[in-house]
Design a protein that fits this description.
By secondary structure, this protein is an alpha/beta fold. It has 11 helices and 12 strands. It has a single domain (about 5-215, about 225-305), classed as TIM Barrel, CATH 3.20.20. It has an 8-stranded parallel sheet. It has a two-stranded antiparallel ribbon with strand order 1-2. The model has no long low-confidence stretch (mean pLDDT about 95). The structure holds adenosine-2'-5'-diphosphate (A2P).
Length: about 325
């Protein structure tokens, strides 16, 4: 399995298992199956509401001798209600306790959006804090403290536009090493990829398959189907693989980590096997012409009436 290089010679396996939308009751089996199948990278977040079960699966896999903790890469994230410097470590400790781990390999600021403590999703304008009240620089000091205390090996961000990444890199003691963003052929984000690489950050592609299982609250009825796009199907036929594998392999060929979510044993294996799919330069160019641009997770839930956040400020 290809890996991405991090500081201290750490290596992140390029394909990981996504756990967003994996329901409690399903995610234990999914993670255990994935680890037995050979996954060595699990992507988590407290807002997914399933870290305790993910933790049980990791614990049981280690107990059963499937792998050691050192062989596994675990990423989790800081939710938006814990952006104040002094709230970062307590939030991290809750995640570590739920995951039953002593440390995370990677800890990300989930969104450049701050909410009042205890607010998971905003219901009204009072639930927000603006970035002038709690600047990312303040949150980052908490993230750096997490590294200093040995609770996380690497830190990074998620859903950050290039300008914001640049500002953070220029104003941080411990540099971010990852930006996890939505990436797939409908949203290739070439400039962000190039810019982040130049600044020393890797990208992780979330929603690489188009996240068709999003809740109806954040899913539009008429959105395009990535897995059924004729160009993706054509390359799948040519390479004798599935459309899902084409999309995962496309991400790997671009040098980004990729975290397809599945709770189905067959698709969990299928997605890991995408590492073996070879795409030619022509295949990649063919897929690159797919358009039109489409963002599945557009962040409009942060841009409600009265919110200090706007979509143009979020994405640039
Ligand atoms: P399931 O969990 O039943 O396998 P994303 O990673 O972009 O969020 O997409 C996840 C969605 O894609 C889920 O609905 C998941 O369903 C489905 N999925 C995962 N792997 C594949 C695959 N190889 N082919 C088709 N659908 C897939």
């Amino acid at each position: 399995m290809k890996t991405l290089n991090f500081s201290h010679n750490d290596k992140m396996p390029i394909i990981g298992l996504g756990t967003w939308k994996s329901k409690p009751g399903e995610v234990y089996k999914a993670v255990l199956t994935a680890l037995k199948t050979g996954y060595r990278h699990i992507d988590c977040a407290p807002i997914y509401g399933n870290e305790k079960e993910v933790g049980n699966a990791i614990r049981d896999a280690i107990k059963a001798g499937v792998l050691t903790r050192k062989e596994l890469w675990v990423t989790s994230k800081l939710w938006n209600d814990a952006h104040r410097k002094d709230d970062v470590i307590p939030a991290l400790r809750k995640t570590l306790s739920d995951l039953q781990l002593d440390y995370l390999d990677l800890f990300l600021v989930h969104w450049p959006v701050a909410l009042q403590p205890g607010v998971m999703f905003p219901k009204g304008s009072d639930d927000f804090l603006s970035l002038s009240e709690v600047p990312v620089a303040e949150t980052w000091q908490g993230m750096e403290a997490a590294v200093d205390q040995g609770l996380v090996r690497h830190i990074g961000v998620s859903n950050f536009k290039l300008e914001r990444v640049k500002h953070l890199v220029e104003n941080s003691r411990i540099k971010p090493e990852m930006n996890q963003v939505e990436l797939h052929p409908f949203l290739p984000q070439d400039e962000l990829l190039k810019g982040c690489k130049e600044l020393g950050l890797h990208l992780t592609a979330y929603s690489p398959l188009g996240s068709k299982d999003r809740s109806s609250a954040i899913k539009k009825d008429d959105e395009p189907l990535l897995l059924e796009h004729p160009a993706v199907k054509k390359v799948a036929e040519k390479r004798d693989c599935t459309p899902g594998q084409v999309l995962i392999s496309w991400a790997v060929h671009r040098g980004t980590a990729v975290i397809p979510k599945s709770t189905n044993a067959g698709r969990i294996a299928e997605n890991l096997n995408a590492a073996k799919v070879e795409l030619s330069v022509e295949d990649i160019q063919f897929i690159a012409q797919i358009g039109p641009e489409y963002r599945f997770v557009d962040g409009s839930f942060w841009a409600m009436e009265g919110s200090p956040y706007t979509l143009s400020d979020l994405w640039g």
